[in-house]
Specification:
Elements lengths: L27 E7 L5 E5 L5 H7 L13 E3 L1 H32 L4 H17 L10 H6 L14 E5 L13
Helix pairs in contact: 2-3
């Protein structure tokens, strides 16, 4: 309940300043999955590193394959998708220009090249960005918090640590 001394009535031409709390933000999180002792979603503080969160998660399991880990970041995914979309737009305009040029020159072979180009354009439009950041999870897990190999985390980061495989795949091309 407000006391009369604190409950002030604002008048015309009064100024009210509402200041933001410094360094305040919504709770940020990282998700750890796969061969982590306690996988899950972990809250992170501003400036916190992957090594410190891995410590809280109990580290990697004995079956972990750190070199096969995938680390993704939302910001990278968004930037990659913008670049893919921009490339698709440029390819589409180049294909349109090539089609007009082929039509005006009456080139019969150009139709096949345009079909290939259209197929590539469709594949490019269907491509979804991943946002992968290449990191050395071995070095992060074995290093100290804040070491040069450690990674400062951001909201929405995801680390997937696969299980070590005991087989090798060999493909032979004719």
């Amino acid at each position: 309940m407000l006391t009369p001394e604190v409950d002030l009535l604002l008048q015309p031409f009064d100024f009210l300043n509402v200041k933001e709390v410094p360094e305040w933000s919504e709770q940020e999180q990282i998700a750890l999955s796969g061969e982590v002792r306690f996988p899950g979603v972990y809250p992170i503080q501003r400036g916190e590193t992957l090594r410190s969160v891995l410590d809280r998660a109990g580290g990697l399991t004995a079956l972990a394959f750190p070199r096969g880990s995938v680390f993704t970041r939302v910001e990278l995914k968004e930037r990659e998708q913008m670049q893919i979309d921009r490339l698709a737009e440029r390819l589409q305009s180049d294909l349109a220009a090539a089609a007009l040029q082929a039509a005006s020159a009456n080139q019969g072979e150009a139709g096949q090249a345009l079909q290939v180009g259209q197929s590539l354009l469709n594949q490019l439009k269907a491509t979804k960005a991943v946002g992968r950041l290449v990191i050395n999870v071995d070095a992060v897990a074995s290093g100290k918090v804040g070491s040069p190999s450690d990674v400062v985390l951001r909201d929405g980061d995801l680390l997937i640590v696969p299980k070590q495989k005991q087989e090798v795949t060999v493909t032979v091309t004719p």
